[in-house]
């Protein structure tokens, strides 16, 4: 299991109403990297508004995600950088593709690109974008995903949609990693999952899930893959979860009480610490570990931690530190639970693929190699870069084959018939 962290980047994100700055975003990203998180994530709004919670709808400051991530790419070394998620209607997808490949180059192949349909009508109206119906916004999302799918391949792409037209367009240079992972964000309804199955690497749902309800959507995603003629094993799953932690039940309840009291409007009216704990990653560290295990059993490869009652808010940094101190080690220990010696990156990939006896996405290869102790992020700071280079070398030398977008398998041996 990998762990991401939402970064504070709104006017409400910091304690005591402190104004948001890029320096604050960068400080949080660097600290997440030091603490051992695998990724950090920024969302996409021209401004935020508490109007949805029945509170003051005055626009709240927001940092733009792609330019912020470009800055973070030069200030961090290991941690992956992602959007959760870009509003598809706000940018021409060809511009997104060019920005994404450039950011990927700056970061050395560490970008994850999440895209969604957009939902805050107030910002659409303020900045002159047509809000339209849910169906229209999903049409725009579908166009964006298809264009990204073509342009990020580096191959000539033609597309004729209602709002986007390309004629043999080619986005070069290509990304630093074999393919920039593209995620679709949403609640996991049928249309979201159909789009994800056809045009994305995976799906992220946020911010409140029980394992049971998430498992239902994960099963629906796999069915959508089968209907689209895609191997469900290549479809990636990620879950974002609000996270409130306390050393024990008493301190957790006190933390929840502070969070509920800070919530604008009536969004948490009637909520108790138990109802909150039921569908978030909250409670004691031991309870959080148990909840993560439940999501892991569903095939979730990454949990994105949102350490407050609002997304992308870091009111109590102690929550992040407690998570890193008490929850992360439980899963890092899994990775080190082996008597096998460490292997080089290509050897690690081959060992994982032999054990799996089936092709795997490179991120799954990485995760299993880390779990088995074949790769160690604590002694090899460029695990991802080294593994991706090794996979390309393996394909070039005939040890591996590319099966699908970012999916690798063992090359057939002569005696395989």
Radius of gyration: 21 Å
Class from helix and strand fractions: alpha/beta
The rounded distance between the terminal residues' Cα atoms is 36 Å
Helix % is 40-55%
Our estimate of the beta-strand percent is: 15-25%
Task: Determine the oligomeric state from the structure.
Answer: single chain
Number of strands: 13
Which residues form runs of ≥5 with pLDDT under 50? Answer: 334-342
- Overall mean pLDDT stands at 92
Element string (H = helix, E = strand): EHEHEHEHHEEEHEHEHHHEHHEHHEE
Number of helical regions: 14
What is the 3D shape? globular
How can the largest sheet be summarized? 8 strands, parallel, barrel
What does this structure look like?
- The chain has 417 residues and is of the alpha/beta class.
- It has 14 helices and 13 strands.
- It has helices at residues 22-35, 65-73, 93-107, 121-126, 134-151, 190-199, 211-227, 249-262, 273-278, 285-297, 317-336, 345-356, 362-372, 383-397; strands at residues 2-6, 39-42, 80-87, 111-116, 157-160, 165-169, 182-185, 202-207, 236-242, 302-306, 360-361, 400-404, 407-410.
- The chain has an eight-stranded parallel barrel, surrounded by seven helices.
- Strand 8, helix 7 (211-227) and strand 9 (236-242) form a beta-alpha-beta unit.
- The chain starts with a strand and ends in a 7-residue tail after the last strand.
């Amino acid at each position: 299991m990998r762990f991401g962290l939402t970064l504070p980047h709104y006017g409400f994100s910091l304690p005591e109403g402190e104004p948001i700055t890029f320096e604050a975003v960068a400080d949080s990203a660097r600290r997440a990297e030091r603490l051992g998180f695998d990724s950090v994530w920024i969302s996409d709004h021209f401004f935020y508004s508490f109007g949805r919670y029945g509170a003051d709808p005055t626009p709240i400051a927001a940092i733009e995600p792609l330019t912020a991530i470009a800055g973070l790419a030069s200030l961090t070394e290991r941690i992956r950088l992602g959007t959760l998620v870009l509003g598809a209607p706000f940018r021409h997808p060809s511009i997104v593709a060019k920005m994404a490949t450039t950011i990927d180059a700056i970061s050395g192949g560490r970008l994850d690109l999440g895209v969604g349909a957009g939902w805050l009508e107030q910002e659409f109206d303020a900045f002159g974008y047509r809000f339209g119906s849910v169906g229209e916004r999903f049409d725009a999302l579908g166009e964006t995903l298809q264009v990204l799918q073509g342009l990020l391949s580096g191959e000539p792409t033609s597309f004729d949609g209602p709002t986007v037209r390309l004629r043999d367009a080619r986005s070069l240079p290509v990304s630093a990693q074999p393919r920039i992972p593209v995620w679709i964000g949403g609640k996991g309804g049928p249309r979201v999952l159909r789009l994800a199955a056809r045009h994305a690497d995976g799906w992220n749902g946020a911010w409140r899930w029980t394992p049971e309800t998430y498992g239902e959507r994960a099963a629906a995603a796999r069915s959508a893959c089968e209907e689209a003629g895609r191997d469900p094993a290549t479809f990636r799953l990620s879950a974002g979860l609000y996270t409130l932690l306390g050393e024990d039940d008493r301190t957790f309840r006190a933390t929840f009480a502070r969070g509920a009291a800070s919530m604008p409007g009536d969004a948490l009216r009637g909520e108790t610490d138990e109802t909150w704990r039921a569908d978030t990653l909250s409670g004691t560290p031991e309870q959080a570990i148990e909840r993560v295990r439940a999501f892991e059993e569903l095939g979730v490869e990454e949990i994105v931690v949102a350490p407050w009652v609002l997304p992308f808010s870091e009111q109590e940094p102690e929550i992040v530190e407690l998570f890193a101190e008490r929850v992360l080690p439980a899963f890092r220990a899994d990775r080190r639970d082996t008597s096998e010696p460490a292997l080089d990156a290509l050897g690690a990939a081959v060992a994982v693929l032999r054990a799996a006896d089936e092709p795997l996405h490179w991120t799954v290869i990485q995760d299993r190699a880390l779990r088995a102790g074949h790769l160690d992020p604590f002694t090899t700071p460029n695990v991802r870069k080294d593994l991706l280079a090794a996979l390309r070398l393996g394909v070039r030398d005939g040890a591996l084959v590319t099966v699908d977008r970012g999916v690798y398998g063992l090359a057939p041996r002569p005696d395989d018939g």
